[in-house]
Amino acid sequence: MKTAIFILFMIFIISTVPVSADLFGDMYQKIPVYNQNANKVPGVINTLLGNEEMQVIIDLNDGTKLEVKAVTEDAKIIQFMKVGPKIPSGKGDCNKDSAITSLDALCALRMSVGKMPEDQNLDVDNDVKVSSSDATKILQGAVKLSSEVNPTILVKTNENTVRNIMGTQKPVDAFLDAMDKKDIVIEGKGIVKSIVLSIGPTVLKIARSLGVGT
Amino acid sequence: MKRAMTIVIFLFALIGQAAGLTVSMDDAEGAKGGTTGVPLNISDALALGSMDIVLKYDPSVLRAMTVEGKRLGENAYIEANGANKGEIAIALADSRGLNGDGTFATVTFEVIGGIGSMSPLTIEKVTAYNIDLAQISATTKGGTFKVTSEAPREAGDDTMVMLVITAVSTASILIRWRKKERR
Q: Nearest-CA residue of chain B relative to A38?
């Protein structure tokens, strides 16, 4: 039940987002609209949604991942932020000033295009090469994006799926299709997990057979 | 004459260099309940490779939402963190370097203060480097944000109403399903 409510909740956010280059920005910009209308959400949803901490992992088309943490309180989104990288101690610091700054990201960028000799110390994602992905992670470290997340719900999907849901006139249908094809995988943590595994597929089938979202 | 011209041009170039990098935000205004993009500008940028900025504002008037690279910063890598109320940290890197004058990013705020309230837009700290990793001195100029009238109803509200209706329908389906299960 909780999962189904969560699905609706996600659809509320995602389906009202216009498509542009910045997926996170698009999602973020619609939160005030959602929160302003959260009082219109039926009581049953308000009650069941409770307090959730969601971790959404989106595989982006450029090969990187976007990790988002969303915290809800009384059906309102009170936190929606990118999850920062865990940069191992001593890594990522190009100019050895004991701080992670944009300068270190610039070093990584220059190394990635061969303008500087590669220093494995800047390979913060441990893929044995210094690339723009390291630069992005170092920038996220520079603005101190928190890497702490203790999700009650974990959602895994990809950019195309999210954009497809955003662009369609039938977001609920697109969402259910994506779940069917495992393009969206939802896992509950702890007690919620068992509920998800037992009733999730049933809820999905009932919703479809009754024509939800058609 | 030619020599004199060269000297004048050289002097102009020197004056230009001495001005250094300036990071600024203009005065802005927005409607209560709406969202407003406030441009972040640079002037006299010369091969600007990276920059760390801390921007402060009144959290009772504005809520920072996103930072996006625009115009000069369209190809730059930009990350921002607005987790601390009243503060937004921005980091930028571009190996090709930013040059000239203009907007490089837009900070989008949700306007939460009452009509007539104001918030300073203070660029508290800037640390900048050129593409050769040499530090550049930078000066800052902040602005003020003023809350104007109430935001007009958005067209997107209708979509939201439609979605709420979908939610109500699905909730009732689920309740019916639960009742069936009890039987």
A: B164
> Domain residue spans in chain A?
2-83+149-209, 84-146
CA distance B151 to chain A (A): 12
Map tokens 């299709």 to a residue: A177
| B7 within some domain | no
Amino acid at B157: D
Number of Cβ within a 10 Å radius of residue A22: 15
Strand order in the sheet with A185-188: A76-82, A65-73, A52-59, A153-158, A185-188
How confident is the prediction along chain B (183 residues), in pLDDT tens digits per residue?
A: 556 655 544 444 444 444 689 999 999 999 998 889 999 999 999 999 999 999 999 999 999 988 999 999 999 999 999 989 999 999 999 999 999 999 999 999 999 999 999 999 999 999 999 999 999 999 999 999 999 987 765 544 455 555 555 655 566 666 666 666 666
Q: Give the C-alpha distances (Å, rounded to integers) separating A21 from A157, A186, A190, B75.
A: 17, 25, 35, 12
This prediction's pTM: 0.74
Q: CATH number, domain at B57?
A: 2.60.40.680
Q: What are phi and psi of B3, to 5 degrees?
A: -65, -45
**How many inter-chain contacts (A to B, CB under 8 Å) are there?**
149
**Range of the structural domain that residue B57 is part of:** 20-152
Instruction: Indicate yes or no: CB of B160 within 8 angstroms of CB of A113.
Output: no
Q: Which residues pair with B150 in a beta bridge?
A: B32
Question: Which is the CATH superfamily of the domain at A2-83+149-209?
Answer: SCP2 sterol-binding domain (3.30.1050.10)
- B66 in the same domain as B142: yes
